[in-house]
Amino acid sequence: MGGTLTACGRLGARAKYRGPFGRYEATHLLRRAAARGNADEADNLAAMGLERAVDAVLDTPDLPTEQEPAYFDDANYVHEWVNHWLTTQTPLAERLTLFWHGHFATEASKTGAWNTYHKINKLRELSLSSFRDLLYMIAEDPAMLIYLDNDDSTKEHPNENWARELMELFTLGEGHYTEKDIQEIARAFTGWRVSYEDGHHYFLFYGEVHDFEPKTILGQRVHNTFNPLFEGYEVLDILLAKDQTYRFIAGKLLRYFFHPEPTQEMVNVGADVLKGGTVRDFLKWLFMHPDFYAEETRNALVKSPLEYAVGLLYAAGKREVPMDSDLSYWLRARLDQDPYNPPDVSGWPLANTDWLPDASLLQRLKFIDFATQPPDSGPPPGPIDYSVFMDGAVNPLSLVAPEAQLL
Amino acid sequence: MNRRSFIKRSLFTLAATGMVPSLFSRTALAAGGNGKILVLYHLFGGNDAVNTLIPYNQPEYAAYRPDIAIPAANVLDLGAPGMTLGLHPAMQPMVDDLWNNGQLALISQVGYPNHNRSHFVSTAIWNTGDPERPNKTGWLGGFIDEQNDPFCATNFGSTLPRALRGVHTSGLSIESIGGFGLGSSDWEQQLQSELQRQIQQVRSGTAEEVRRAMDHMLRSVDKVRGAQAGEFAPATTFPNSSYGRRFRDIARLIKYDFPSQVYYASSGGFDTHSGQGGVQGAQANLLAGLSEALSAFRQEMILQGKWNDVMVMVFSEFGRRAKQNASAGTDHGKGGVMFVTGGAVQGGVYGGEPNLAEEALDKGDLPVKVDFRSVYAAGAQFIGANPAELVGAEFTPINLV
């Protein structure tokens, strides 16, 4: 781990970075924000100055045109995401979408690939919005309703899967609620189901299986006889009113975008920013914070396999990987990050060491050859430039250095 | 060849070439190993114990589970004295090969106090052996630290479980034996030489963590090469399932005297909140896969002459509710069931027949009667480790061998 970040205690967590902002700092910002880039892009950001550069990386996400399911199988969905990440003008949205997809995890093997694909697109659209918007969306999301079995929940036998993970993984974190709260929330969400029309699943409230009795959740009474559907929204509002929810989410965001061990003060201030504003506000605060540019912050995070793959392909000049290549096989079977099938409902690990077992590292080295090979046919790749991918690269052999694994 | 002679041979080879890394000399000094092997297999998701080790004679059983109860006629009755208990019909191979040979111990209602129903918290507790303070190291971390040898414990899979993390040393993690190594092409050889050069240079911070991991990985590749080079044509056919592949790889490393005394693997799919199935279906498929693989593993170990030196422990992070839910599934519960087998294991039901009467349940769950740490303690004792140091002196090893 990097050293303790004592600077923030002295400077105050709301302080702004006032140091130099040249290619060196812009490279760090770009690597963290986007997990891909090159020297020209870093220079452009540096020329803008800190605040305009941060606004630029936080631009409104480019949304891909949704493809009809017939066009895709599972592997192509993965492939399409990588190609989008390689070409989009707003690559931060992709790294952030991967975060939200890991946070609100669903597995295509249970939900069907289309539902998870659609969920990822909605997460991308809302990725910089308020946490409230994201939580409301996910509660009604067909992939989530299917994945955590709320679609099967009835007043006679409420299914507790969604209720439990809603608090443990999505809002409060473990230890901030009781088993009784889980049971009551499960009752409040009875009737939240999916319907199937024209080949797609849609959210539907089915009152016949809803439990109309009053519930008590975290000490608050929930009983809406006028519109029982709203009991679910009231539960979300109770969770959204808790400071703990924002501490939990801010802590995760900081471990993903900042440092494996953020200080409690950073978490608390970040939670305030997130509660009072949007994810964009939060990231702008972080990316302008002096500690973000401290030496202990640089190269402090291990890239996930998807970040590693995208970053390396981009650095090797690849802007579109042909659909008939082995890319999705590499990601799904060898590098062990299948974007459509996170390992379980807790998503991918945020701890650096979890990405470092022997088997994973070995496959990352083997991937270098795949990523840096010129294509058999078609136009040659663009310029090769490893400078944003890793500090200190001189040629493809440098990619075996530990620094290649870092953000 | 046992572990000790493996170490001697390695030392001899290394001494002959004039390179004795300190790792090996320390290992030789610390070699407290007794040649026995412990295999841990985690069924992730919370296996439903009630439909695995079934108290099928109690009227509550069918009443609680109208859609998923196994009809009495299909249950594989164990004939256990004083009990009416049977196994799920998908577990026929386990009954035929393990139970009927007196080598299957079934630990009923196993768990820990104040059960946590979170998959992740509960898994952490099973892996650290500490429900109060799920600390950063694993319950076998002390053993691995003491041996000071990462090869004394091997995980199959790409995420190293916390069970095998020590303070100074962690176990080895490989996805499969066949694919574990860099190829022989010029390019891959260049990568390997450059990597060897790069990892000589100590870094700081996260880069140093990665450097150490790469160093660990290179040594692991080297070590697994022996098992890759040798032929492995087991007389038994291992099923072509995740269970079958894992147990086949474990058998292969054992055959080539790999120095691990602990093997760890896991399979998911047990979180059956909906559509759990009964005689057939989701849980049945999982139990059948496990059962067939265990049976093949036993056969292979017998042929290798190692069956008496092996103990397999299969666990899940919790059991499920006594009653089914509306989705023909079950929600997270408490007491689970463990399987322990091996040539030296005394078969039988440990922990008694679960009582499904409403008043005997713990808020709708099977209560916990056996602490999992007393089972772990038996495993620790089997491999010559000190159970008191690994799981605490208050957990007396249950008498499994």
UniProtKB/TrEMBL annotation, chain A:
Q: Which InterPro entries match?
A: DUF1800 (IPR014917)
Q: Which domain of life is it from?
A: Bacteria
Return the protein name.
Uncharacterized protein (DUF1800 family)
What is the species of this protein? Oceanithermus desulfurans
TrEMBL record, chain B:
Protein keywords: Signal
What InterPro entries has UniProt attached to this entry?
DUF1501
What top-level branch of life does the organism fall under? Bacteria
Q: Where is the signal peptide?
A: 1-30
Q: One Pfam match, by short name?
A: DUF1501
The keyword Transferase appears for this protein: no
Q: What protein is this chain from?
A: Tat pathway signal protein
| Protein's organism | Oceanithermus desulfurans NBRC 100063
